[in-house]
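Action item from last meeting closed. Structure (176 res):
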């Protein structure tokens, strides 16, 4: 949705700047994504054997804490390298540096919610997960629209993209 709004309010060049930030942030999604693919079958196996959500505690908390401690190291490295990589490889896209940095930092919140999401799906609480996703999407669309109307550009969009991820993470982790 944010990309459609960027095209509606700005232009394809701005979308290109923003896309570089999304690409940098998506690199960080690989780490929790792979871990989730490995652990999700274990969630289901343990829950199937015990039918007790409390038996999944270690499968949710341990990787979440580990990720919460390790991900900032990767984020910090990417955050510091972004200007050098962009200026060396794509010097015409220097305006992508700030939004990319914001999106990289913001990717933390969505990443740490992954195991909570898997937990809710495993214990048949998909409705809570879906409600949090819908609320997050509504906040993302409305806040993106608002900052574009205010003329904040792609930096503003990057900033308000972090907000729904933060709220989604708080909702899921708090509920779990």
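Sequence:
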């Amino acid at each position: 949705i944010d990309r459609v709004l960027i095209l509606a309010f700005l232009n394809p060049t701005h979308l290109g700047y923003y896309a570089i930030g999304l690409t940098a942030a998506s690199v960080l999604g690989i780490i929790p994504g792979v871990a989730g693919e490995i652990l999700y079958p274990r969630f289901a196996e343990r829950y199937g054997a015990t039918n007790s959500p409390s038996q999944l505690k270690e499968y949710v908390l341990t990787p979440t804490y580990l990720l919460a401690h390790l991900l900032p190291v990767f984020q910090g490295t990417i955050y510091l390298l972004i200007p050098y990589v962009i200026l060396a490889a794509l010097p015409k896209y220097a305006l992508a540096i700030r939004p990319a940095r914001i999106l990289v930092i913001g990717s933390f919140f969505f990443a740490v919610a992954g195991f909570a999401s898997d937990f809710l799906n495993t214990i048949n609480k998909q409705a809570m997960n879906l409600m949090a996703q819908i609320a997050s999407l509504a906040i993302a669309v409305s806040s993106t629209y608002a900052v574009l109307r205010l003329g904040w550009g792609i930096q503003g969009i990057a900033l308000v993209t972090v907000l729904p991820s933060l709220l989604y993470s708080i909702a899921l982790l708090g509920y779990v």
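Note appended to the action item: The chain has seven helices and no strands.
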